[in-house]
Design goal:
single chain; 222 residues; Nucleoside Triphosphate Pyrophosphohydrolase; 2 domains; seven-stranded mixed beta sheet; 5 helices; 30% strand
Length: 222
């Protein structure tokens, strides 16, 4: 299937991803998309299919003067695009050591997370805890905190944020995630490691801020 045909099929399945806007109008005329791609040599449509994880789209957008231009974005096949779970134990928080391919370096610490699958967000969160920490927790035991959007400049994806009280951890040796360590840190240590640039992962930072705000809100109601 060519990229433009796949693009219109995705638009039919997920119309919310193609909502009309006067700010950045989309060109949704198939003939125009094909002519633009042929005349400029630029790919248009679903230019990269990394199913079941994500798609990269090259939308054809329209400037105020009528000029056409492409704008790339990442979209996910599921409306629930992923989860992040904050592991809690005895007042400390579990941060994983993971080698990440995009920056080609070790991350400074991340909470367990994963892309959305054909599961509820809570089920997906429980699955990630098992796969990444070797911890079995029922989905209903996870506390939902909210959701975050990690980079609205490149993606519409939303990540559901949970926290979970966990006991003993046994990271599977064959986790296949590049995970090779876990450290338990206090809130004070997290603050220091954010300040000194050790922890930089955006999903982890966003999730932790959700946690702090939700717990502060809960405390104010008591």
């Amino acid at each position: 299937m060519d990229s433009i045909t796949q693009y219109f099929q995705l638009a039919a399945r997920r119309p919310e991803l193609f909502a009309p806007s006067n700010q950045i109008p989309l060109c949704m005329d198939e003939e125009t998309l094909r002519n633009y791609s042929a005349s400029t040599g630029k790919p248009v449509g679903v230019v990269y299919d990394n199913s079941p994880y994500y798609f990269v789209l090259a939308d054809l957008c329209i400037r105020e003067n009528g000029e056409l231009y492409t704008y790339a974005r990442v979209v996910y096949p599921h409306k629930s695009n992923g989860v992040v779970v904050i592991p809690c134990r005895n007042g400390r928080f579990g941060l994983l050591s993971i080698f990440r391919h995009p920056p080609r370096m070790e991350s400074g610490g991340e909470f367990p997370r994963g892309f959305g699958e054909d599961l509820t967000p809570a089920e997906n969160g429980a699955k990630e805890l098992w796969e990444e920490l070797g911890v079995r927790i029922a989905p209903e035991e996870l506390e939902f905190l909210g959701e975050i959007q990690t980079d609205t400049g490149i993606s519409a994806g939303k990540v559901q944020v949970f926290c979970a009280q966990v006991g003993e951890v046994d990271i599977p040796a064959d986790n296949g995630e590049g995970i090779h360590g876990l450290r338990w840190v206090t809130p004070e240590e997290i603050a220091q490691q954010v300040a000194d640039g050790t922890i930089t992962d955006g999903i982890t930072l966003g999730a932790y801020l959700q946690y702090l705000c939700r717990k502060k809100e809960t405390a104010s109601l008591l």
